[in-house]
Amino acid sequence: MFGTLPIVMAHSIQGRLDKLKQAIEFARQGLEGLETALLEFEEALSGEAAVRPESRKGLDLLSIPEVCQEIGMGKSWVYERIRSGEIPSVTLGHNIKVRREALEEYLQSQATVPRRTNR
To answer: Where are the chain's structural domains?
Structure first.
């Protein structure tokens, strides 16, 4: 990996590279937490985080907190899937909504079948 560098120097560089990777991972986790806190703050300001009735007639649109609750995942994860287009969404004003049917289709597309092993 390090070409003609002396072995001691290569180990020193590898150790520092490992520390750098660890620091980047901690920073990534911190930024993800910050993103979640900012999104929650924004939702609180807009009133989107308010409690909603359980059943609705017509289109069954879910807010981001409801999507998170339905699938047991964090807001950052859900927003990333929405941004990438994996989970289809609708933007109404400043609010992002996900049709329950679209969420169910996404979950169905993620289903895996366990492989059988020959014993």
So the answer is: 7-109
